[in-house]
Amino acid sequence: MEGTISYYWDTKSDEKFDWGSLLALINSRQVGFIQYRLKKGETGEIQLVRVLSHYRGRGIGEEMYKRLEDRAKRLGVKRLIGTIGFRRIYGDPERAELFWKRMGFAITGYDMEKELS
Fold first, then answer.
1. Phi, psi of 26, rounded to the nearest 5 degrees
2. Secondary structure (DSSP) of 95-110
3. If pLDDT is split at 50, 70 and 90, which confidence band does 88 have?
């Protein structure tokens, strides 16, 4: 990598929801993000994930996802869901599907789901 990677939460929260984005930065340049909405104590939705093509395959997406999952667990979220939109994170549906399966998601058609423990 061309520098140190850092992560920055850009979020809002109220008594029921926590939503926003987690940004991945290298030398203050945004190279990736994950956008989400968590319903505290219930279900969280991964809405969009993007990593710039030059930075893919370096663990940035995995690290962002792990940080989001940790946040969800701290808020009592019981499961995470997503749809076809985030299967296309790499512009390559097969590669994206493998990524999310590696993160523990079950994939049914265009829907993805993971129970959190």
1. -125, 120
2. HHHHHHHHTT-EEETT
3. low
Beta bridge partners of 39: 17
Model pTM? Answer: 0.90
Q: Provide Rg for the chain, Cα atoms.
A: 14
Whole-angstrom distance, CA of residue 10 vs CA of residue 21: 5
Closest CA to 46 of 64, 59, 29, 30: 64
**Number of domains, the chain:** 1
What burial letters (b/e) apply to 96-113, b meaning 16+ CB within 10 Å? Answer: bbebbeebebeeeeeebe
34 has which bridge partners? 22, 49
Instruction: For residue 41, give the amino acid letter.
Output: G
In CATH, what number is assigned to the domain containing residue 22? Answer: 3.40.630.30
Q: Are 56 and 91 in contact (CB under 8 A)?
A: no
